[in-house]
Design brief:
GO molecular function, one term: hydrolase activity, hydrolyzing O-glycosyl compounds
Number of domains: 2
Family: Belongs to the glycosyl hydrolase 3 family.
Largest sheet: 8 strands, parallel
Order of helices and strands: HHHHEHEHEHHEHEHHEHEEEEHEEHH
Keywords: Glycosidase, Hydrolase, Signal
Strand order of the largest sheet: 7-6-5-4-3-2-1-10
CATH class of the largest domain: Alpha Beta
CATH architecture of the largest domain: Alpha-Beta Barrel
Oligomer: single chain
InterPro entries: GH, Glyco_hydro_3_N, Glyco_hydro_3_N_sf, NagZ_Beta-hexosaminidase
Protein name: Glycoside hydrolase family 3 N-terminal domain-containing protein
Radius of gyration: 21 Å
CATH superfamily of the largest domain: Glycoside hydrolase, family 3, N-terminal domain
Number of strands: 12
Number of helices: 15
CATH topology of the largest domain: TIM Barrel
């Protein structure tokens, strides 16, 4: 299967140069019906992708802002709040935790119900349905076969095993309608919040394992996430409780922290999750999750063209010394697809505050629309609607 970055790039080229791609079909080629059928399929895919992306052009600001939120669900069935978020706020997706999932059949019914509601509401856009299923201790889906931790997989030194593990996880998630997994962890090191979630302490090892895991999820049809950019591994504090400060110089950042993320990008990862980490050498004022400088490095230096995310910025360690971790949330969204992972009721309040007419805070409407197009492209590339059997 073609890696998602190549698929995304191919779709972009198809959108810009559809005539050039289709013109050879008019030339004399007696290769038979198979070639013509392949060209027809490509033309249909291009048309469907064009139609899907055009939905961003029809959305107003409120609808576009909604697409940038993934919210949690209250229970094991759709409730008033989550249905309202889908129906009235056009949210981009939902994230499921252990209390939402009793069995494969129950989760399948939950996800199908939410997808149907989303596709019957204008604009009709399928949802990201996400979980955190890394393997090891980070496993909340009761029907998915238990898998070893990343540290155990990495200790064997075989990327093929990392691919096999993620492919099996992905296939079992997809059966229940889950289409997105916030994995793999490509942090280098076994720091406070990471432990055995990391493949190891060697960036070359982590690069190979992480890239293989991305390929495994892609093979299974799951949109994956490389996290926690730029690297939570060396942090001595847990970012759920504090704001870790990593005093790496630029040489160390380039040689130790970034290689696994670069490898994941090259493998085609569609998503990168930024960590609540302060790297003073790059940005002494804001953590990576809120830093335009880090997002610029991710886009320009690593060549990442997918969508980036962060969890809600309301975490305990919002301010350390001179670091302004609680501000800049609007600026960090420039040129990226920022998403908050929030409970439905809290997301509703935040969406009401952000639904302006011309943009969101300091994010102009044009950039917001570009971000939404990235999200829609991932949803179309991974066939979210068709996989849910609702198109």
């Amino acid at each position: 299967m073609v890696a998602p970055r190549k698929r995304l790039r191919g779709i972009s080229l198809a959108l810009g140069f559809a005539a050039l791609i289709l013109l050879p079909a008019c030339a004399g080629n007696d290769n038979g019906a198979g070639v013509n059928e392949d060209r027809r399929e490509k033309a249909v895919r291009t048309e469907k992708t064009t139609q899907r992306l055009s939905e961003a052009d029809r959305m107003d600001v409120r609808e576009m802002v909604g697409q940038m939120f993934v919210v949690s669900v209250g229970g094991t069935e759709p409730d008033y709040y989550i249905e309202k978020m889908v129906r009235e706020r056009n949210i981009g997706g939902v994230i499921l935790f252990g209390h939402n999932m009793r069995s494969e059949e129950q989760v399948k019914a939950l996800t199908l119900s939410l997808q149907r509601l989303s596709m019957r509401t204008e604009p009709a856009v399928p949802l990201f349905v996400a979980v955190d299923q890394e393997g090891g201790d980070i496993a909340s889906t009761p029907w998915v076969t238990p898998q070893p931790s990343a540290a155990e997989v990495g200790s064997g030194g075989d990327p093929a095993r990392a691919r096999a593990v993620s492919e099996e996880i992905g296939a079992e998630l997809l059966r229940a309608g889950v289409n997105t997994n916030f994995a793999p962890v490509v942090d280098t090191g076994f720091g406070a919040a990471i432990g055995n979630r990391s493949y190891g302490e060697d960036p070359d090892l982590v690069s190979g394992m992480g890239a293989a895991a991305v390929e495994g999820y892609e093979s299974a049809g799951i949109a994956s996430s490389a996290k926690h950019f730029p690297n939570h591994g060396p942090a001595t504090a847990d970012s759920h409780k504090d704001l870790p400060v990593v005093d790496h110089d630029m040489n160390t950042i380039e040689s130790f922290d970034l290689p696994p993320f670069r490898a994941a990008v090259e493998a085609g990862v569609p998503m990168v999750m930024a960590g609540h980490l302060l790297y003073p050498a790059v940005d002494a004022r804001r953590p990576a999750s809120l830093s335009p400088r880090w997002i610029s490095m991710l886009r320009e230096e690593l060549g990442f063209g997918g969508w980036s995310s962060r969890t809600t910025s309301r975490w305990p360690g919002r301010r350390v010394g001179n670091a302004r971790a609680g501000r800049g949330g609007g600026r960090q969204g420039r040129g990226r697809s920022a998403r908050g992972l929030k409970p439905a009721a809290a997301a509703g309040r935040r969406l009401r505050r952000r639904g302006g007419r011309r943009g969101v805070g300091e994010i102009p409407e044009r950039r917001l629309r570009e971000s939404v197009r990235r999200l829609l492209l991932v949803k179309e590339t991974y066939g979210f609607a068709s996989r849910a059997r609702i198109r």
